[in-house]
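User: Sulfatase-modifying factor enzyme-like domain-containing protein. Structure?
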Amino acid sequence: MTRALPGKKGFWGKVWDGVKAVFTPTVYLADRQAETLTRNTDLTIEANQRLEKSRQQLRKQELALQEFQREANLEFQAEQNDLNRSLQSELSRLTRELQTQEALLTREFQASEGKKNREHQEKLARLNMELQAELAKLNREFQAKEGNLNREHQVELEIFRSNLQKWCLEQQKELQLELKAIDAELARELRIYDRQTAIEVIHEQKRQNNSPIWLIAEDIVHSNPNQNPIPLRVFLSPPTLRFDRSGDGNDAAKGFPDMEETLGAYLQQFFEKYSAQGRPIEFLAGAWTSKFFHSQAATKSMFRGLKTEPTLILESAAEGDYFNFRFGYWGLNWATYRYKSAITMLPWREVLFDFAKDRALRWKEKRDKHIAAGKNAEEFDNRYGMEMVKRYRRNLEIIENERLCIEDGDDPSEIERLYSIHQNDYNQLRQFIGICHCIIAGLLADEYFLVHVSPEVRQPPLLPQILPDLLQEIPEEEQDKLAEIVVNFYGNLYNLIGQEESAWLAELRLDLAESLLGLPKKHWAEAQIFESVKAWLNLKKPGFSKKPGFWAEGELLDALDSALTIDDLGYVEKLNSCLAAVGKNRQLSVVDSCYNRGIQRCREEKYSAAIVDFNQVIQINPNLAEANYNRGLAYAKLGQYQAAIEDYTQVLRLNPNNANACNNRANAYYKLGDYERAIADYNQALSINPNLPGVAHNRDVAQGVWEEKKRQQREEEERRKVEEEEKKQKQREEEEAKGQEFYFEVITVNAQGREISRKPGKARQKLEQLGNGINLEMVYIPGGMFQMGSSENSSEQPIHQVTIKPFFMGKYLITQEQWQAVMGNNPSYFKGAKRPVENVSWQDAIEFCAKLSQKTGKNYRLPSEAEWEYACRAGTTTPFHFGETITPDLVNYDGNNPYASAPKGLYRQETTLVGSFPPNAFGLYDMHATVWEWCSDRWHDNYNGAPCDGSSWETGGSDNRVLRGGSWDDVAVDCRSAYRNWVALGDRHWDLGFRVAVS
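Assistant: Predicted structure:
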């Protein structure tokens, strides 16, 4: 645009010198420190508290990781111990079985012939072989499970470590945004608080008429109470005001053009671009009412009234031959304002002269070309008119005088230079000053929307995108100088943000690079791209910044590429876009990065970490068969063959002709012992690639193992069938030994004696023939444990647990016909063949058992007291096996004396036929009442020291013998399952009887 004379700095250079002096990092940092000192002091304590809270959270996570590792180790050790115990238990069991079998074989050997001896030896050898095989199997299973647990924990820990690193970074980002949001929220709250004070200040300024904008100040304070971000208010104080209420504001330098409307139009158009992209700016053109108020005093006065509103004041003035441009600026609730001179002592007349000289030189250049082309000069001059030609020639003469003056070493400004100024020269001056206003306003607006708003509405710089259109008419070298100032300014802003929000610096730097792509030269954006990469590496690879030396661009991208994860997809997409925009061919891929890192970790045998990498690849691209294939290899190396099989299966879904996947899946099936599937996969691999090394051999090995396995399975199945048949035969013999099944109903009553349940029951019994058609029915009583005794009487205490072995017990009380068949007499008072024998002593009962044993060849006896109560209860814990009480319909007792809430009933005053009343769940009849039943035990006053194995208590106590069950002549309470009684062993009475037992 301007062709300055030799040795003379152009006016653009003077402008950039002034702007650079304001926006260089050193000056800007000093200003920022002064502006934010007060605000930061208020937030420091809260920020430190939050940072400390964050550190504590991070520490908790570290402790959680340590605790997880400790628990994992404890779980592993516990499982290992369980396996050891299981192995030892199994060894002990097998050893006991072996010892039992050996003892059995030894006895059989001693009692058998040579043929049986050989059979026993063979069986012993087989048992030894089975024992050794079982031990080997258990040992293999233990070692395999131990290895699997260890490897599984490695993968889990690697995944946990990766997730913890991601969590820590996310927490760091969230905390930094939260602190910034708290800062912004505090500023908004203070704004509400300070508004009343601001309104009072405005009223005072209105009263004293000492503010240039008091007419609208109160409206500004009352507007936009909740808007986020709060609009930036911009005021314009042009060199001259068309309507100055003071009458003293239009004393601009003589010849300086009016430009209030022009500047207003320039800025309005400029700010509309900001508002259209989410950066609200309220440009209040015409609000400045008087040039009487100016400079820092006016800014200070406005700051008192509008400190709650982010504000920018653009103030310019022409004094004599010089033009000055200053600005005042503050953010939300700043402690003080910023006031700077952007352009100082710019010789505006020289600027006009430069425009005029440039116009004259261009006219001469066109005229010379016209004449050189053989055309008429007069025709060219007539085109412009003689008056304009005279002006151009006069300006050219002045230019020549200036050149001669400079050659003589004189100052051209000291000679008379009456340049002819065209209206377009004035328009160019207006345009130049408008551009200066837009650039300064754009820099400060970008600072506001980047630094001084809450994070959720933060916006990257917009000026770099608009700048090329603003500077179309500016020489290229001057554009480079301005771009350098702008980029340095933004770089400084991002450095400030990075001090507080380091976790976001990489993304923010990349946003800046994207903003700078609009500049004609791309090296500014390129520089920010690699600053972003450095910030990313400093964040994700803490040791990066400590590495010495200069990092070339390729090295930076290689370092970045080696550390990318799935969480960086958004960053990489924008980075690739920026790299392409600046002409770089390099494009990064998270998939390739994770995949290549996984391959490298496999080479380094870091299989757990490799699996984490392949997981991310598959999550991004589920159809990348290579990722599944290599993850399968890693799982196989860790012994996790089932997971490897799933990966190889996915590979074959995506590519059915992948012979290597078939082969590797076959290997995994082989490791798991699934030989049939392994053989099928080996065959499939060979059908795809018959020349695949080692597959045929592995298939043949698997085939051999599978055939042997099937042979062993057949043998095992045959052996299992034999053992199962032997077991069933033994069970049949045992069941037959228990006798034939018989069926009955089991009745349960409540405390009132009403029936509440009637269920079918069954038991087994054996018949003992006593001659003349008289049989003794013995019921099988299964073994078990029960709580013997009750809390009702001291003789029934303490309640204690007793274990009973299986035995047989008389289904009924011994009847008179059974006594007659064995003893040859009948001592009973109440006669009747099917009535219970009574009037017998304990000694009589013992004699009967001895004769019965002699008669049958079996060892009949009286039941022990524990056996009797166990048999009576038949699994119940209530006072009676019928439930909470009894009635005369169920038991033969003195019905005049009931138990619990049962009603009174029949008192029969004699014995009844055996089996006249319902049985208990074991199938035993008349266990309650009818006659007392002798037990084998000596009498003891309580159960202290009583046996717990169900045996008869033959030591201590007295010679008296135990009676159980009650009788027809007793009250209900004496008939309880736990009730105990005694008489002398020689006593006889019409209510004393018994039933027999046999083991």
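The CA atoms of residues 291 and 917 lie 124 Å apart. The mean pLDDT is 82.
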